[in-house]
From TrEMBL:
Name assigned to this protein: Solute-binding protein
Pfam family membership, one: Peripla_BP_4
Gene3D superfamilies from the UniProt entry: 3.40.50.2300
Signal peptide residues on this chain, from the entry's feature table: 1-25
Length: 360
């Protein structure tokens, strides 16, 4: 991966403004060409895809191009289904594609088919293979580092020499190895990684099975921390620990700031999650797709370049994630309008929210 020209953090507002201006600067009035943007998301197992990304992309594309239309398909974690969905969109002649790929290798031929049909492809959240025109994601190595650093803090005095279980993501996703690599770089010299699992489909039930196996192998009192790759996986990990009556629960990480995960953090069942301001990602992908659909370049949008296994120097935007623990929920998720206090704090969690300083 190439180094970024500059990293998005304090200057996020400026970038969003630039994206807005670039997306609106087409060859004519909005919608005059009747453009259609295809949106292909990978699953419903992770709540964010349907609840956040899809509506945000649809809204942003419409803001940038009032008569543009978004056509949508969800692959339900099946690469063959996503390949069929993508090929169908190519056949119907969409103007550009936003692709969150289930399996990069399995979709490579479809990306090539899109290029032959002069349909640009923006890889979204996960780096696709083949001749893609752009890539938008959060820095996966930084996600893993944030998880590893927070896990060590959550482990307290057991952070040096303690026993950790890693419950990673789906190996078909390029992000899974990206996250794992960032986490291992932090953990490998500090703790003993006793077990490491790959979680097909990022599914909660698969993570539950992995954690149950780790508890059986290591003993319920011999696990000091769990590196869970995202919040769906963390849900399975926590459920398995509670089923085994592990008390107190070890520190457990997560990612995506799912509402259930935020409530688990407030309650003390999950130590942290990684917040990725999805609106920045959806805005960037929408601006890229609209610009490319109009035949414009995206040089003024991108901030870095990355290499995929098949393509060098893919124009890219890598956004900066934020670690969220009980201490900064209010300063991050609440202040950014992701959730309200009432959403995070149902009546049964009010005492925990009081202790977290959310409702006092």
């Amino acid at each position: 991966m190439r180094g970024p020209k500059w990293r998005l953090s304090a200057g996020l507002l400026a970038v969003v403004m630039a994206l807005s201006l670039a997306g609106c600067a087409g060859n004519g009035a909005d919608g005059e060409d009747g453009l259609t943007i295809g949106l292909l998301l990978p699953s419903r197992a992770v709540p964010r895809w349907e609840q956040s990304d899809k509506p945000m992309i649809e809204k942003r594309v419409k803001e940038l191009c009032s008569e543009c239309r978004v056509v949508y398909a969800n692959a339900e974690n099946d690469a063959a289904s996503q390949r069929q969905q993508m090929n169908s969109m190519i056949t119907r002649g969409v103007s550009a594609l936003i692709l969150d790929v289930v399996d990069p290798r399995a979709l490579r031929s479809s990306v090539r088919a899109a290029e032959r049909a002069d349909i640009p492809v923006v890889a979204y959240d996960r780096l696709a293979e083949g001749p893609i025109s752009g890539f938008v994601s959060f820095d996966g190595g930084e996600v893993g580092r944030l998880q590893g650093e927070a896990l060590l803090r959550g482990m307290g005095p057991r952070a040096d020499g303690g026993t950790v279980v890693m419950v990673n993501g789906d190996p078909a996703s390029p992000n899974a190895a990206w996250y794992e690599g960032g986490a291992r770089a932090v953990l490998q010299d500090r703790v003993r990684i006793a077990r490491s699992y790959d979680t097909l489909g990022w599914r909660t039930e698969n993570a539950h099975d992995h954690m149950s196996a780790a508890i059986s192998a290591l003993g319920p009192d011999r696990i000091d921390g769990v590196l869970a790759a995202n919040d769906s996986i963390a849900a399975g990990v926590v459920a398995a620990l509670k089923s085994a009556r592990v008390s107190p629960l070890p520190a457990v990480t997560g990612q995506d700031a799912d509402l259930d995960a935020v409530r688990r953090i407030v309650e003390g069942e999950q130590y942290m999650t990684v917040y990725k301001p999805f609106r920045l990602e959806t805005d960037a992908a929408s601006a890229m797709a609209v610009a490319l659909a109009r035949g414009n370049d995206i040089d003024n949008l991108v901030t870095t370049s990355v290499d995929s296994p098949t393509t060098e120097n893919v124009p890219s935007i890598l956004l900066t994630p934020t670690a969220v623990t009980r201490e900064n929920i209010g300063r991050t998720l609440v202040e950014d309008g992701v959730y309200t206090i009432d959403q995070i704090c149902p009546p049964k969690l009010r005492p925990d929210c009081d202790r977290a300083g959310l409702t006092r």
